[in-house]
Amino acid sequence: MGMLKRIPRPGLIVLALILAAAPLVFSNPYQYDVAIHVLINAMVAVGLNLLMGYAGQISLGHAGFFGLGAYVTAVLSANYGWPVYLSMPAALVVVALLAFVVARPILRLSGHYLAMATLGLGILISIVLRTEAGITGGPDGMMAPPLSIGDTNLYDERYWYALIAVLLLATVWLALNLIDSPVGRALRAVHGSEVAAEVVGVHTLGYKVLIFVVSAVLAALAGVLTAHYSGFVTPDLANFIYSIEFVTMVVLGGMASTYGAIVGAVILTLLPQFLTGVDDLEVMILGAILMVVVIFMPTGLVPTLARLVPGGRR
Amino acid sequence: MFAEFMQYLFSGLTAGSTYALVALGFTIIYNASHIINFAQGEFLMIGGLGSVMLMQYGLPMPLAIVGAIVLAVLAGILIEKLALERAATNDIVPLIIITIGASLFLRGGAQFFWGKSIHALPAFTGNTPIDIAGATILPQSLWVLGVGAVVVCALAWFFKRTLTGKAMLAVSHNPNAARLVGINPRFILMLSFALAGALGAVAGAVAAPITLTAYDIGVMLGLKGFVAAVLGGLGSPVGAVVGGLLLGIMEAFTAGYISSEYKDAVPFVIVLLVLFLLPSGLFGSRATERV
Q1: A131: closest chain B residue by CA
Q2: pTM: predicted TM-score of the whole model, two decimal places
Q3: C-beta atoms of A288 and B101 within 8 A
């Protein structure tokens, strides 16, 4: 069975090819910049999809983990002189610990109470980042040192694109393996009926905690990369509206579809590009899309379209 | 000392009665449908900003406020009719997301049509502060408290004494049984959104001279109203009022005695503590889950 699992995943190969081929159509740094933001958001969405799509638990606070990751690495490297290759993993560890500590009480809740608790946690993080100006620079934010190899700073968007593309592939690979592992089966059981899952011996809370921590760390990784890529962090990174955008990506692309989460991230990140000139309409259009998709395609874009293709994937 | 205490208490009660009205809006919709309407804060925005805008179009203030309330009621009915009623699902997550979409739509619409500036609605009866027990309070605070009290009493009367109010309670207890005795749950659901819209708009308009108003004011006010509703125990109208007032008072005391910067954090710290320690709030029924 171990051998069978090693069959290369066609979807992952297609994704790798797309990521490798995309630079062929990029003609300027701006397009790389947009692509990098797409990939960073996709990373958060893939992680959040594990939680929402597979474990069936909503989180309205993932921007909190995203922002916290960005700030921990920025503070450690800029204020305390830590090398970036140490401050980045340290940020992931901090977020993982926080997520682990809060996961148990939070995930005992369900439905609206869970939504409220995750939302509250995310907002608290953003308030702390905004208020502790002595450490975080307050509402104006702070600089984050660039990533460097030896003495060379990585400023070139092309390197960043390559780095983040590889990390996204690794994230997707991890997510797909997690879904196909016994953990994934247990999660689907939790989503189907938590009580039934417990009756057959699935330790539901333990699995939910695991996935909550994994998705928080993926959000933190995306935040860490954002901090050093853009060179500065602001409390807006942890803004409630981003938590909503991440949820929208998952729902739009299709819950319980890893590639759907990526498609959702692509659409939502590119949307403002198509709305230039009508910037003021962006929020209204985002809201309309959210409502229309959930009403008419409750399972999201990718699963809905896949069902139209004969013999297509679920 | 005492004067300071009274000052914080009054400002807490003023903010708290706004939260209580928002929380009641959440409660009414929750009872009719088990939906949490994340667009509730947007009704306040429509109430406050809408009044300002209608005054700019030349309406006198009382008419402008009535017009804004009508707008919020219409928005509530449209959310229910066009979005929630069409959603072919009873799952909580998609329904939450639809109301989040509706709130973005309303906020974005306000930003687009009414602009991003912050506005103040004129105080209803002037700005001469009143001295009560050493604390100075604005006449508008009395308006907020008074209107809050009137609205709460009117709602209590509506639910206890009118047939429609009783029908709404019946649906909240058991929709199927209510249907059997001839109540139309669809109509009740629409009514609950209309009522929640009106409540939010009233709160938004009365508070606007104090809090000022802008297109994005609904986000925080809506969240705090939700916190108040959860604090009191979702679904309990008494809990919503008590939760709202408690929240306002605790916020004011934190701002006064501890740290004004962390005032906005208070509701979220409290709600996390309450959820972790008493998962059904102060007045919520202990839930027994059916499998």
Answers
A1: B261
A2: 0.88
A3: yes
A261 domain residue, yes or no: no
**Residue A131 belongs to some domain of the structure:** yes
Which residues of chain A lie closer than 8 angstroms to B94, CB-CB?
A: 251, 294, 298
Is the predicted pLDDT of residue A144 greater than 80, yes or no? yes
Residue A271 maps to a domain: no
Is residue B137 helix, strand or coil? strand
Sign of the alpha-carbon torsion through A129, A135, A140, A146:
negative
CA distance A104 to B54: 49
Q: Does A195 touch chain B (CB under 8 A)?
A: yes
Looking at every residue in chain A, the average pLDDT score rounds to: 87
ipTM for the whole complex: 0.83
- What is the CB-side half-sphere exposure of residue B282 using CA atoms within 13 A? 17
User: In this structure, is residue A63 part of a structural domain?
Assistant: yes
Place of tokens 């060379």: A152
Q: Is the model's pLDDT at B95 over the cut of 60?
A: yes
Length of chain B as a residue count: 291
Segment A285-293 shows an average pLDDT of 85
How many structural domains does chain A have? 1
pLDDT band at A92 (very low <50, low <70, confident <90, very high): very high
Extents of the domains making up chain B: 20-116+132-277
- What DSSP line would sit under B34-67, residue for residue? S---TTHHHHHHHHHHHHHHHHHTT--HHHHHHH
